[in-house]
Amino acid sequence: MKIKNICCLGAGYVGGPTMSVIALKCPEIKVTVVDLNESRIAAWNNEDLDNLPVYEPGLADVVQEARGRNLFFSSDADQAIEDADMIFIAVNTPTKNYGEGKGMAADLKFVELCARQIARVAKNDKIIVEKSTLPVRTAETLQTILDHTGNGVKFEVLSNPEFLAEGTAIEDLLNADRVLIGGKQTESGKNAIQSLVDIYAHWLSPKQILTTNVWSSELSKLTANAFLAQRISSINALSALCEATEADVDEVANAIGTDSRIGSKFLKASVGFGGSCFQKDILNLVYLCRYFNLPEVADYWEQIIVLNDYQKHRFARKIITSLFNTVSGKKIAFLGWAFKKDTNDTRESAAIYVAEYLIEDGAEIHVYDPKVSKEKIVEDMRYLWGLKGYTDQKIESKLSQIFVYQSHEDALDQSHAVAVLTEWDEFKMYDWNAIYANMYKPAFVFDGRNILDTEKLISIGFKVKGIGKG
Ligand code: NAD
Ligand code: UDX
């Protein structure tokens, strides 16, 4: 089938950029992105391209070219579903925070709602594409819902997981290492796969487009994220050993990364990985392994998360012990709150957990992030403390220990210590002499990303602690 009309359910970090690029590269296809969240749709339609709901380098240019031509953002999901030949499901699949599988399993209620809505509305045959990250065998569930509540319409379900990383989403979409398309190995399944291959073939070469059966595709997404996160936890585990032995973790990473069998990427030691994907997807993988009665396999993957939690707390503890065993009443300046540079996304950011640990010890946290608003930071902390069951009164009292600024100078002024939580490039350019002059002495820098020039900082007078630096 030649696709003329695409609908995408979910206008978030994946749905928005992915559909923008498809629309850019396939001008003959109408692409409509819908969302339950009307304010998010309004923001995608914002005239001011600096205020799109997702910040990604290059995204505004793509939206500017395609929006209104063949790319549309709408709240009328029923109409978009009815008109579409192909429907992408790109809704959130967070970790369940209630009931069966709480804290581990993926919450598929949003995906299920999409399937029920499609089944209710559809009047002609459609291809349904899983773009959200889903547990292996979800396509079977979707097919069951679609087949049993539909209007005699035929649905083909494909799996097409997204591998983009935030901060480089547009580049990743335009120059993907690969796209993966899984489908049934029947004639109609193969035809559906071909329809999606034809879309990506507008800008990717055949060797960048992999096709598999549905289950391999679904499982490959969880596996890819588990492998990537495992490398970070491995180097972070070694960073602790480096600190105990005076080895330098960046030198070790460089030495092992030049072995072509190991490779150099994803070996940057840090305060711990964050983001909406790694933790959620590994917990989901662990849950699946336990479900299929594979406890040793589950324990193996779970250790990645255990180590990541250890790394975040180890960083926070180092701040406390270095500041003479207490941060009570002390001003700790945070440079960065986003989970990585070049994004406004803060989901599962290490900063949240480091802040919580220090606030428990009585610290005042003074934050500056180039792209994250005060409202978002407050929302992150409220959510965390809400999950812990804290009363509103207790939450408000703890929030009074957090301050957010529009400039780094204000955040750093009269602070006892600086902690770098995100690797924003601008932090390297600051006037560190001026910063030192306005801090309490001894002035500490805790570089959770190993991005600052340690020797220069020491020569200014700072006491510097990096990750994995003896
Ligand atoms: P997100 O929270 O930014 O966006 C999801 C959107 O779906 C929200 O705006 C929400 O309002 C909307 N939504 C929920 N139910 C809906 C419904 N029934 N109809 C219409 N809209 C609905 O999430 P995201 O980061 O874009 O992630 C989406 C999926 O993609 C997840 O499964 C995630 O694991 C996966 N993924 C994310 C990334 C990433 O970097 N963020 C990368 C690869 C894969
Ligand atoms: C990840 C995957 O990379 C992507 O393929 C998938 O589609 C979604 O999940 P994302 O979470 O957006 O992407 O960013 P990523 O670059 O993977 O970084 C995740 C976290 O790991 C960040 O907190 C980052 O700072 C951290 N990280 C990354 C390290 O600490 N060290 C590294 O070497 C790499």
Automatic annotation (TrEMBL):
Looking up InterPro entries in the UniProt record yields: 6-PGluconate_DH-like_C_sf, NAD(P)-bd_dom_sf, UDP-Glc/GDP-Man, UDP-Glc/GDP-Man_DH_C, UDP-Glc/GDP-Man_DH_C_sf, UDP-Glc/GDP-Man_DH_dimer, UDP-Glc/GDP-Man_DH_N, UDPglc_DH_euk
Biological pathway: Nucleotide-sugar biosynthesis; UDP-alpha-D-glucuronate biosynthesis; UDP-alpha-D-glucuronate from UDP-alpha-D-glucose: step 1/1
Q: What is its EC number?
A: 1.1.1.22
Q: Which sites bind NAD(+)?
A: 10-15, 35, 40, 91-95, 132-133, 166, 277-280, 347
- Which BP terms does GO give this entry? glycosaminoglycan biosynthetic process; UDP-glucuronate biosynthetic process
Asked if Oxidoreductase is a keyword of the record, the answer is yes
Q: Which residues bind substrate?
A: 162-166, 221-225, 261, 268-274, 339-340, 449
Q: Report the GO molecular function annotations.
A: NAD binding; UDP-glucose 6-dehydrogenase activity
Q: Catalysed reaction per UniProt?
A: UDP-alpha-D-glucose + 2 NAD(+) + H2O = UDP-alpha-D-glucuronate + 2 NADH + 3 H(+)
Q: What does this protein do?
A: Catalyzes the conversion of UDP-glucose into UDP-glucuronate, one of the precursors of teichuronic acid.
Recorded family membership: Belongs to the UDP-glucose/GDP-mannose dehydrogenase family.
This protein's name: UDP-glucose 6-dehydrogenase
